[in-house]
Design brief:
Elements (H helix, E strand, L loop, with lengths): L7 H29 L3 H29 L1 H26 L3 H24 L7 H55 L14 H14 L3 H30 L3 H25 L6 H20 L3 H29 L5 H30 L1 H20 L2 H4 L1
Helix pairs in contact: 1-2, 1-5, 2-3, 2-4, 2-6, 2-11, 3-4, 3-5, 4-11, 5-8, 5-10, 7-8, 7-9, 7-10, 7-11, 7-12, 8-10, 9-10, 9-12, 11-12
Length: about 400
């Protein structure tokens, strides 16, 4: 197989994932929008409850995926999401959208995602060899990012046209296509599941193995720094800086689109050209590029210069992740690949839950610019973590 040629089954899955991710993104926006009409506390609770289960149950999700195989877990997860969306459509049509219903849907979606995401994260590994893994994961990531880009504005349009129940039915359609795709494809490198994996012992074994595996602790630490400190600073920093500097909501939306656009351009490059063979160098350079973009954003006097900063941030994030994620998967033992993926997801999400309220306190005390500048310094720390690890350099 050519280095950049992908099996048809993989291409079919990536194509189906665009529709599934788009449906999920539209539904997520619609849930948050409807919840915001009930008050900021309800909206915050809905957003938190979609993330918290992945933090609490993520390691268990990795054990289940190793025990039964990623494809089976993805089939079960997609079927569960289909049922949840269909049930949401029916419930909203019958009773409207009270707060308890929105919170319940958020918990259910977050719980299924805790089991689905570790399996989906390693699924490309079942289609391609080591040399093509970077390009395969870049294509899967670009498809997901494209859907996330279109999801919020499309959700804003559709919630006014077909209401929450109609949006939920659209997600049913996306889940149906994904479910049929998963049932039809057969990954060529699929291995027998680890049948002897016990729940708590399996989690403990994965954590011990990851701690001792050369390069893995450094990768997890770097991801925790970028995801926990840098990304929330951008997500919160853009609207806060816009209000502080007199930019309009539309201008703030364009600034945030610059982050996505930069990531899409870098992702497209790696998806079609492949990633670097010496991965530690771009993994070290990525957070430095992110820091440069954050520095521009922290000092930007106009919204147009802020766009340049977020574009640079988007490029740096993808340079970092496009090399880190496949390297991490290759370092994972075959029998623990999904459990290792759940550790990576935990490293991404747990720090965000802790950092988000601290960022609000920092902005209140020092202002948006100093907070974003501090995040730039933390991004450089992620580069130091990767670059100083001898195992990764080898």
């Amino acid at each position: 197989m050519s280095r950049l040629r992908m099996p048809r089954g993989f291409t079919a899955w990536v194509t189906a994932s665009i529709g599934a991710e788009l449906g999920a993104g539209v539904l997520a926006f619609a849930l948050t929008w409807v919840a915001s009409g009930l008050g900021p506390n309800i909206a915050s609770a809905v957003l938190t409850l979609t993330v918290a289960p992945s933090v609490v149950l993520g390691l268990l999700g990795g054990v289940v995926a190793d025990r039964f195989g990623p494809r089976r877990v993805m089939i079960a997860g997609t079927l569960a999401l289909l049922i949840i969306s269909a049930g949401t459509a029916v419930a909203v049509a019958l009773w409207g959208a009270p707060a308890p219903l929105l919170l319940l849907v958020a918990v259910l979606i977050g719980t299924v995602s805790a089991f689905h995401r570790p399996a989906a994260g390693v699924f490309p590994r079942l289609f391609v060899d080591d040399d093509a893994l970077g390009a395969a994961m870049a294509r899967a990531g670009m498809a997901s990012q494209l859907a996330r880009t279109v999801g919020p504005p499309l959700g804003g349009l559709l919630i006014g046209l077909i209401a929450l129940s109609g949006v939920a039915l659209l997600d049913v359609a996306g889940c149906t296509v994904m479910l049929l795709t998963l049932l039809l494809i057969r990954p060529p490198l699929e291995r027998a599941p680890a049948r002897d994996t016990a729940t708590f012992r399996g989690i403990a074994e994965a954590m011990t193995t990851a701690r001792r595996a050369g390069g893995v602790p450094a990768l997890l630490g770097a991801v925790a720094i970028v995801a926990g400190a840098v990304i929330p600073a951008v997500v919160l920093g853009i609207p806060l800086a816009a209000r502080e500097r007199g930019w309009t909501a539309a201008e703030a939306g364009i600034i945030e689109a610059g982050w996505i656009a930069g990531g899409l351009v870098a992702g497209a490059w790696y998806a079609w050209r492949g990633t670097a063979s010496v991965a530690w160098r771009p993994m070290t350079a990525g957070p430095i590029i992110v820091a440069a973009g954050l520095g521009i954003l922290a000092l930007a006097p106009t919204w147009t210069s802020a766009i340049a900063g977020t574009v640079v941030v988007g490029v740096g994030v993808v340079v970092f992740t496009a090399h880190l994620f496949p390297t991490y998967v290759l370092l994972a033992p075959t029998a623990m690949i999904s459990r290792f993926q759940s550790l990576l997801i935990l490293a991404q999400q747990a720090p965000q839950l802790l950092a988000t309220p601290l960022i609000g306190v920092a902005v209140a005390a020092f202002g948006t610019g100093p907070m974003i500048a501090s995040s730039a310094l933390l991004a450089v720390a992620a580069s130091l973590v990767v670059g100083s690890d001898a195992s990764l350099r080898r």
